[in-house]
Amino acid sequence: EIHIKDPIEKEVNPRLLPGELLLCEASTVYKYMQEDGSNRGTYGKLVCTNFKISFLDDDSASDDNEPQFKNKIVGENDITLQCVDQIYGVYDEKKKLLTGQLRKYPEKLIIYCKDLRVFNFCLRYTKEEEVKRIVSGIVHHSQTPKLLKRLFLFSYASAAPNNTDGRNQTVMFETLEDWREELERTKGNVKYKAVTTNEGYRVSEKLPLYFVVPICISEESILKYEGRGIPIWCWSCHNGAALLKMSAFPKEQDDSTSQMQKAFLDGIYKTISKPPYELLKTDDLSSSLPSLQDIQTAYTRFKQLFLIDNSTDFWATDVKWFSLLESTNWLEIIRRVLKKAIEVVECLEIQHTNVLLIEESATDLCCVISSLVQVMMDSYSRTKSGFQSLIQKEWVIGGHGFLDRCNHLHKSEKEEAPVFLLLLNCVWQLVQQYPPAFEFTETYLTVLSDSLYVPIFSTFFFNSQHQRDTNKSGESLKTQSGPFRFLTVWDWSVQFDPKAQAFLNNPLYAEKPKPDKSQRKTARFKHQRQLSLPLTQAKPSTKRGFFREETDHLIKNILGKRIGKFINSSDEPPNSLREFYDSWHSKPVDYHGLLLPRIDGPEIKVWAQRYLRWIPEAQLHGGGTIATAAKILDLMEEVQSLQVKMDEEHSQAVSGGVRSVPMLRNSARLSSLFPFALLQRQSVKPALPTSTWKDLEDEDDLVKRDDEFVDLSGDML
Q: Could you give the 3-state DSSP secondary structure of residue 32?
């Protein structure tokens, strides 16, 4: 039974952004908490605008108890229209997917979001007319195909005052000078040149206005096939070897065209294989990495593990966690992508060969691999401004189709694929393995992934620089004709105040390289709700006793098939690559030098902060990375205050340079879901029927054991 309390008649109005219009609303809507069946929640008003769906309760009107990490654009109970994944209606306790025109209106609405939040709204106490308006309005504005100019991006750009900083030290790569400076920074300007051939987009609408090619490539060659078959420069290594990418020719061509294209390619390869250029290795990513369809399928399965309606669903999946996680194949795709990046690094660093990445459009997996290689090899890409400049160069200006891949316009699900999310997941693996090497935190990566669905920034809402430029002109709402002035996502002050922005910066970033042997000791993996697959390590320690080795042998026999997939597969790195990998991992880490991710077995983990942050059952009270961070920040504050006292005693002026960090007092009261969710209730595991527990116990007694050490000697006697 739902405990009905009289809703307070206090009028709560939505906070509207410039250009935001209220489209429909419904009063007396009951929002459930994500609970264990108790149906607790709160009354309020549900509204839909041309920007978001928003639930307004009495707390929405007050600014008391505001979280330390508050987004100024999207509130806790706001869902941007682009963030809506699927909408279900509940009819007589049965869920039904809502799309298009509705004949019957549901008594309950469930909204699944792309940032993995789940909202449950009860409409039983709402007026029938209001239910019709709000449900049909939400479904229409968030699920049906729309025109590009209908995006809120344009409404906001024409109405909002543009008084923001804009560039924020991020290189935008919109000018020829930006490209020349990047060439100079990487010492690539001896063999490569920035070209203006595509000014006015006369070569191709898919290519950026300016890009870099080998000096020996003529303008005539670039124009011949609209830029296809031309090696485009991404980055140069310290030893002169370079990373290049190229759009492949379409495979289905008549013989004469194919012969001409083959001859053209042969000519290009010969030209860039002669001195002063290094030897060239080509890598067709469409055959060596999973297809976009495979990536989309894996992610769709993977995210279902975290879109949880209630506590019972959580515990039902908990007992099958490892098998469900493995069956999605998402972690394996991340591992394969990281392994491919290591292969490219080895060619550049050890073999001193140029690497040419080939893909149909060179705007999907090429972007992932080239970005990862630069993050691993170039410490500048591990600073905040450097990483943002990298995303601008390889993705935004590089022509990744954000509009299609994120399906912002709901035009075609066939084009949808989480390619940019795949990159962020891979970068997160590096961030959590080597935190001091990065100036930014995992919170920064999580917020960046959320910004994919906030249509006030142009960064992630176009397929190419050409599309953005051609849609820039428009009429202002103030009847002044002129181009739209779009915001860039890199101006974080639009979303967060300075106190919240401090969560994006890593206070323990190693500003100077300090190799330390103690840093290389890998912590043994302990069991929580494990976020990686429970496989034995590929390389056993030499300091083990006989019994431990025998135990490992038994576990391998028991889990042989699963282990074999990762450790004894044909996908295992070749010897030279394995030697390079093992040799690097046997030395102390230089946080400003080359970084190689650990990719064996359980080293690839689930990005807990992004995927588990809305699930109260998955929290650790007073634990997780936030508890560690809180203690470190307290120590830093103490050190800083002592430094100030010392400076005062020596009559020295205190200079800047002290990193501003938010102080997290009472870390024991925080949970591992912080800063995205405040302290939640303690989850209680529901009682399962006796028969269910019996089935589970009979199925596998290993579930109850500690994953790190399984003593099987008793079972064998």
A: strand
